[in-house]
User: What shape does this take?
Amino acid sequence: MMCMIPFSKLERYEGNEALFELVMMSIVSSYVGEPLHVHAEGLRGTGKTTIMRAARGILPDITRIKGCVYNCDPNAPHCPHHKDLSKEELEQIGVEDIPMPFLEISHSAKVGTVAGSIDIGKLTDTSKPEAKLLPGLIPQAHRGILFVDEINRLADTSPEITDILLDVMGNKPGHIQIEEAGLPVVEVKVSVSVWAASNPDEDPGPLEEIRRQLSDRFDMVCYMGRPDSVDILAQMLRENSHSYKIRQSKLNQLSASDEAANNAIRENIVKWAGQYEKTDLPDFLRNYIARLYIKHNLESIRAIEAMQQGAVLHSIIRGRDKVLINDVTDMIPLVLKHRVDGDSLVRMINDTDSRTVKDGILNFKSRKNKGKKDSEDEVDYFPNSARPVKEMNRSELINTEKTLTPKDM
Amino acid sequence: MSNERINIDKAAAVGNYLGLYFGQNQGVRLGESTVVSRKAHARMPERRIKGQIKILLNRDAGKTYLDFVDTDQVVHIDTYHRPGEIDPRDVARAIFTALDKHFLEKDPQLQYAEDERFKMVIEYTNKIFVTTSLGKGTVYELFQGNLRPYLEGEEGKDHVHVLARLNRDEYALVYVLVEAIEEVVLLSEVELGKVKNIIHGKQKQQEESFAGYLKLPWKKLRGQHATALPEKENVNQLILKLAEKFGGVEEIQDFMESYSTNIFKRKGIDQQKKKWGDVEHYVEELKELGVLKETPMGTVLTKQGLKLTDFIINHKCELETEIRRNMRKAPAGGTSRFKKMGKVENRSSQVEFTNRNKTINNRDGTWSGDLAVPETIIQAKKNSILRGDPGLTIKRSDLHYYEKKSYIPIDVCLVIDASGSMAGDKRQAACYLAEHLLLTGKEKVAVVTFQERSSRVVVPFTRNQQVLRKGLATISPAGLTPMADGIVTAVNLIQESRVRNPLMVLITDGVPNTPLWTLDAKVDALEAAAQIPEANIRFICIGVESNHLYLEKLAERAEGILYTVDDLNRDNLINIVRAEKKSMLKNNRA
Assistant: This one.
């Protein structure tokens, strides 16, 4: 764990580039208090977890009220301890800088560890035992990142935790309720970006099959591809070889250059966050997104909200101050792949270009082809001619399927 | 005078019959050239029998052609003719005169009330809509000489297509209309076409044309944002489309190879059809996408086609994952109709396990259960403080237990009829079912097929998709239906394997015609079916409607359930097995 490859040094290739960008976009967004939930799906060993965990190294610092487990923002305290205090009282407690929280939900997690439960430390205090609540992972990850590995398995085995995640990710910011029999219920808002990884091919299958709602809560889904270049693979192998790792760990975990690279990204993130607060989507793009929603009958408003958020973030981390149509079209597959079926997705993507050959023309062409075939058959589809009704008896007039079908069939 | 009377009698008789048959949701042939119903009609090129007309029970005529909201409002009259052109205005005029004459014959008094008569006729002419290959319009419009153009692909190409909004008591007019129409056809020197037979059925879902909206990156695209299109998605989607049809990446490669320039690898269309069903549509679409092209040597892959093949080879892992993902999803909400006959009650064994992540408090007052010690102590400590007890006290209400979960594993053995009639789409559907079951459940799947004179285990009970795929690829339907043999093989397989709650699913589109022990194939199969309940196997049979009499007996002997469908398609199969598994679980809980 100590000699994890730093974020800046991880190999980038076509199949995983989107995830690097998403991770940075999500950090920028979380830093300004607007979560962006990201889900990486892909085959085993495509580096989903590695990239997400390595992002820990580039997280910027946040300022909180000193010692607050809920990570209260000094300007807007929200936790039960601090929300009712006056400015002077808060000043007295003071503030501190901590790295943006990055917490993980593991598979042995229980509702208590995730949401909050009785504080055992206080409970077993011999001098003054007390029954108090201790916030769980989610409230503690406020203003930061919450990482769930193999989220499809978690959704399958722990529906209760899934319900909590649904609440947390339902709105921005979300909301969580800590309950413990006999104690008053604590309700706090949480602004946490949930990052998840899963392999849709392994048991119990893709997330959208297990918990459709949870899958829709993710703003973006990134499908990871396998690396397909020999050079990249060789480089990956080299960095993962045991001797290389030993050498690295002798160099005191992170060499200065790696540290500097991480710092550079971190500084960028803070800078981008400043920009993000100022940049807005141009009206024509906003209308364009709205039209997509109407035209293609999208179900979830979350999808187009994510498209807007993503497009702005994407333009910023690309170092632009104007959002372009490309930023939006790049977001379409990420935002919609888990929400609509493949056909609709491709239709939408191809729709972005209005001047290509229209479907109608192609249809016309294929219809014409079919017409030709028909007319070939047609000449003798009715090989025999019929008598007119006028010449027929009353009893001959009506025939049904039964009377027309030969008896022996 | 007597002649007129006869006509009125004829019309009244026709009206009565139509009322009767339409009430039973049927259509009829009126005379020899005309088909009348309240549904849409279609030719049946798929049967290759000429002169047959299919009445599409699932397509109401009013809804289909005139955008009506309510069903059964419109009578659809098609008078078929041999090649030739009919002017709809002539038809309209003839109908106008015929109606006028008819009202007069029916009620001679009307000759003194010309205005009244005219009003009646006009009212009807607004309710009758005529299309021929030369144009269309209501009788009223056409009578005025207003003609709307006929569009390529519409109804009316080889027939006079008439839609009439008539109530039940007006059905007698249908005869009047048909007589008038036929006369116009004959006057136009066109022969009437004889409809040999009519058949009732449902419209098969039209194969979707994907060439229209997919855009391959190596095809030159026009437009300002063309380069910005994420091309991978398009290629991916094309391959997924093909996979849905052919079964998997390997099958797609197999299919593409049929069009390689290497003559030894090429496969004829008949051979392809046997395996994959109707491939022609796909060949057409791929031609349009520029993947295949016509050459003097036959159809071959283009450069782009070769690129596509390369892409498939290079991205096999990712593609297979996505294909599996789509398979799990199926069926995509499609409704399917099936009939269920028979009922069984038997209990299944279940697997229980403890969920260490979840504890529950005070379950239904019993003391038994898997006690969660840490949770209990924490709760007791907390509650002692809240209760104000001096030290740690443990009360019954503090006890916490680990949650127990249970599920019922159902191992499925598919017994698939691989006789000649199952070739193509039905084979594909059965194979798809097998893969779908494996991918969506936690249980084992086995496949047994029977054909010619014997049966074989194609796939033994397995959870391995590779094994399943390989086995399924060897199924090549041909020959007769030795059902008894198939059932016996499956029973033996189940008895020899370690399986839990075995469910045997027999999929067949026929009845047995190759015996095993005696000379009577049907009796043998019944005899074999009797072994199924003896071996404690649950049995369902999925067959086609027309064989239900025999299959019902078979299911009864096997103490199982018969499901009949009108088409052994993918959605039907999956929905039936899914429903059956659900009912097994429910039975158990009850």
Observations:
- Chain B has four domains: 2-201, 226-329, 351-407, 412-589.
